[in-house]
Predict the 3D structure of the following.
Amino acid sequence: MILETALMCMATNIYHEAKNQPMAGQIAVAQVVMNRVNDSRYPDNVCDVVKQGLTYKNGKVVLGKCQFSWYCDGKKDDVNTESEKWQNSIRYASMVLTNRITLDVTEGATHYHATYVRPAWARTKTKTVRINRHIFYRWEKK
C-alpha cells in the first residue's frame, strides 16, 4: 500500500512537471524527489516531498509557495489516465521507486527549474546538469 501511494504521488509529479520531456528528463524529476526523500532537510517520504509547501493555519496550501509549482498553482490537477504520457509517468515512477534505475542522472540534485526562469535560489546551489528544458542543482556538501 505504501509503495502504491508513493507510486501515484511520484507519477503525478512526473506527469505535471515533465510529461513533455524525454524519458531522461522524466526520470530526472523522479530522482530529485528521491534525493529529497534521502536528504534530512526534506520530508522522508515521496508524497510529503511532492506536496511540500507553505500552508495557512487551516492547512490549505499558499498559492505559489510549494516545492513543485503544479501542486499549488491554483489550476486543476487533472491527469488523463488513458494517455501515453500518464502510462510513461507510471512506468518511470515505478522504475525509480523499485531501484531499477541506479544511475542518478541528476548527480544528486535536489532542485531544478525550467530553462526559461531564473530563480534566485539557483545562485546558492551547484549546477549539475541540463536535461532538455530543466536545469538541475544540488546543495554543496558541508
User: Anything to note?
Assistant: Strands lie at 53-55, 61-66, 111-114, 126-131, 134-138. The mean pLDDT is 92. Residues 2-18 form the longest helix (17 residues).
